[in-house]
Design goal:
Length: 260
């Protein structure tokens, strides 16, 4: 009886969570995505479906984000446009992200012009994709931005850039400044940063490096200052060269990694 009662309570609690929906026709990729996201995004209820037709059953739920897999299809494919229109009709308050096998600029631009707020390429590392989804969930926009002279790499674009230059408009001086600050990290700070990249909380980092939690927090503060980052996620992304060095006073935050 207790098990039934507990299961009922869990079900009732899940019905009040904001909802993220994964639409992926293929069962194996859909199951893999679902497993990862349920582990990483515990703050939302995650539903999966093979087609957008099943969105009808979510009419009473608080759907915040629909992730639509389009594989190799172009954004202007009639089936993709029909699916985007159906999502907008069924879930008018939800943001839409697409999962695509492409990340070329024309495809990204076409998606943004159709109101897509998240563009995820299947070539992304999973931690970047999750950070992108977190950003979209809190009202931001995630898309790959072109970088002059380099292959396109993923970046974050806030919903209101307020005049801030994107990565491809950064001058060389700004790039040199952030590169120099990152190379100024001490060996211990680099060790802590490597653990942050794995998403470890302070307690585990402290145990792994044989440090106190207060010392770990001090190192993280130094890392964020040197990387011009608001939070742990930004520090990791800047370390990888994914984010430009922008004003700490003006840059909107990126969904942070857990701090404890």
């Amino acid at each position: 009886m207790d098990d039934i009662t507990n299961a009922s309570k869990r079900l009732d609690a899940s019905l009040h969570l904001p909802v993220l929906v994964i639409v992926e026709p293929l069962l194996l990729p859909r199951t893999c995505i679902l497993t990862v996201l349920r582990r990483e995004l515990a703050e939302v209820e995650i539903l999966d479906m093979a087609t957008v037709d099943s969105l009808d059953c979510t009419s009473t739920r608080d759907v915040r984000l629909v992730v639509l897999s389009i594989a190799d299809k172009p954004i202007d494919d009639p089936s993709v446009e029909d699916n985007l229109a159906f999502v907008a009709e069924c879930c008018p308050n939800a943001a839409v992200a697409v999962l695509s096998n492409h990340d070329d600029e024309p495809t990204v631009q076409a998606a943004m012009q159709r109101g897509v707020r998240g563009f995820l390429s299947t070539s992304l590392p999973i931690e970047i994709a999750i950070a992108g989804l977190r950003l979209v969930l809190v009202g931001g926009v995630y898309r790959p931005l072109p970088v002059a002279g380099m292959n396109r790499i993923p970046d974050f674009e806030p919903p209101d850039a307020r005049g801030l230059a994107p990565a491809y408009l950064m001058n060389e001086g700004a790039r040199v400044a952030i590169d120099r600050s990152v190379t100024d990290l001490t060996p211990r700070e680099l060790q802590v940063l490597a653990e942050l990249e794995l998403g470890l909380p302070n307690k585990l980092i402290a145990a792994k490096l044989n440090l106190s939690e207060s010392t770990v927090k001090m190192h993280i503060q130094h890392i964020m200052r040197k990387c011009a980052a608001h939070n742990r996620t930004e520090a990791v992304l800047r370390w990888r060269g994914r984010l430009p060095a922008q004003s700490r006073d003006h840059e909107p935050g990126v969904a942070p990694m857990p701090e404890t």
